[in-house]
Design brief:
about 475 residues, 19 helices, about 80% helix
Length: about 475
């Protein structure tokens, strides 16, 4: 395979667009650590303050399905400028907003910016990378996806201890305007012509309803289960969860039916008939449940079971995040050199050792072992995760890559939201009736909830590995027939 050079402008374009996506994901995870402070400032309860994160995730998930249409309809530079404008506007409103609804509006605007920037970065990589370097550049791109949510709790803990929480948005604006914007304007190039693609509003509404309904189902189902176990009233939450599930599934089925019959669908889905690609997609949606959910689990187990401070609990995630920053491109290089099977399966067989060790030692964890075992998971996860999407998109026709990118990124967002909802419910069930926070019984109950959570993580990663093994067997049979 020829050793093709990576153009300098491509590196600049990835840095420019990737930094926007990184900032968006980082600020989303930073906010979760600041919830207690935000509750006091805006005089809202836990259920209300959660909307700062939930509404952001909903908007990002709803924007990403548009990425295929936007990629066909508009130039990369136009989309980049739109993402910059949304990021800066959202940050300015966060700085000056002093009412909770205004903060939510800012989060909606920021979510739209992240929903444009992340698929744009991946489309640029897929379209403009030399074929022999796609894996390593996708690995670089995956830093945005894996590192930002991991270091968010650490940054949030640091900010809350030394600066007002709005300082994080004061800092990001100069980064966007002085680094991302000029680099992007200089380096982003257009390698494909735009086309007169049309936006199907009915399909867009249906996919938004589907995503919102499914995310709200997960959220409200968790609230209902927690309320039922603790002896409270779960009726309203349970009804809301059932209605959300019906709406979400109904809208999703309608979207699939409508896409098959549309001349110009919002997302072309024909490539999903390939079982090998579909199995990759299932694994790609399952693994972020663990990968992104780990940040929530570690910080809560550390504080509520081990009694650490908010800052230390966030710092425990940092070693795994830093190893991810280094090894994601290494995983891509291994993919480019050895193909998909050994780098991907080897990475996740290593990654599953992390939650296995956490389960074995769950009742006698220390901050050091908690961080160390997560480090093992983070190493394997960062080595293999981006390669799943890379390998799947390599097996579909080039004209459908923007559609595949949109679907994979949407499933990534949904998986991350599902992980937080699932693991928070498991911990809440374990803590129900265990006494006051900080008591010995409450700490023990949190440790028990942690063991349940780690067992669930093992099951999810194992299912993803089985999907990948099945996909590679299908690919091997196809190659043997050629």
């Amino acid at each position: 395979m020829p050793d093709e050079r990576i153009p300098g402008k491509l590196i600049g374009a990835i840095v420019a667009v990737g930094s926007l996506a990184f900032i968006g994901i980082l600020t989303e995870t930073v906010m979760t650590v600041l919830f207690p402070q935000l509750m006091r400032e805006f005089n809202v309860d836990t259920a209300t303050v959660q909307w700062i994160t939930t509404i952001y995730l909903l908007v990002v998930a709803a924007t990403m399905p548009l990425s295929s249409y936007l990629n066909r309809r508009f130039k990369h530079r136009t989309l980049f400028l739109a993402a910059v404008s949304l990021a800066v506007l959202g940050s300015l409103i966060m700085i000056v907003g002093h009412a909770f609804p205004v903060i939510l509006i800012a989060r909606v605007i920021q979510g739209m910016g992240s929903g444009v920037a992340t698929p744009l970065m991946i489309n640029i990589i897929l379209e403009q990378s030399p074929k022999s370097k796609v894996g390593r550049l996708m690995g670089v791109g995956s830093l945005v996806i894996t590192v930002a949510p991991a270091i968010g709790p650490t940054v949030g803990g640091a900010v809350s201890s030394i600066l007002p929480w709005r300082a994080i948005f004061v800092i990001v604006i100069p980064v966007i305007l002085l680094i991302s914007l000029p680099v992007g304007l200089k380096c982003i190039e257009q390698h494909h012509p735009t086309e007169e693609a049309r936006l199907n509003p009915l399909q867009f509404v249906s996919i938004v309803l589907a995503l919102c309904g499914l995310v709200m189902f997960l959220n409200q189902a968790g609230v209902a289960v927690s309320a039922a176990v603790s002896g409270g009233s779960a009726t309203v939450s349970a009804v809301f969860a059932v209605v959300s599930l019906i709406v979400g599934l109904g809208a999703l089925l309608f979207f699939g039916w409508s896409s098959k019959r549309s001349f110009s669908p919002l997302i072309r889905l024909g490539w999903l008939r390939d079982p090998m690609v579909l199995l990759h997609l299932i694994a790609y949606m399952l693994l972020p449940i663990v990968g992104i959910g780990f940040g929530y689990v570690i910080t809560n187990v550390a504080q509520l079971s081990l009694g650490t401070s908010a800052f230390l609990s966030g710092a425990l995630v940092l070693p795994g995040a830093l190893i991810g920053a280094f090894f994601a491109p290494v995983g891509g290089m291994l993919y480019d050199r050895f193909g998909p099977v050994r780098p991907i399966l080897g990475a996740f067989f290593a990654a599953i050792c992390g939650p296995i060790l956490l389960l074995v030692f769950s009742m006698r964890l220390t901050p050091v072992t908690l961080a160390g075992f997560y480090f093992i998971f983070g190493l394997g996860y960062s080595l293999g995760f981006s390669n799943i999407m890379t390998n799947a998109l390599r097996n579909i026709a080039p004209q459908f890559m923007p559609d595949g990118n949109a679907v994979f990124n949407t499933c990534l967002q949904f998986g991350g939201a599902a992980g937080t909802a699932l693991f928070s419910t498991i911990l809440s069930v374990a803590q129900a009736g265990a006494g006051e926070e900080g008591s010995t019984t409450f700490r023990h109950a949190t440790a028990v909830g942690g063991s349940w959570t780690f067992a669930t993580m093992i099951g999810i990663v194992a299912i993803a590995i089985c999907c990948l093994i099945a996909a590679f067997r299908i690919g091997a049979k196809r190659n043997s027939r050629l």
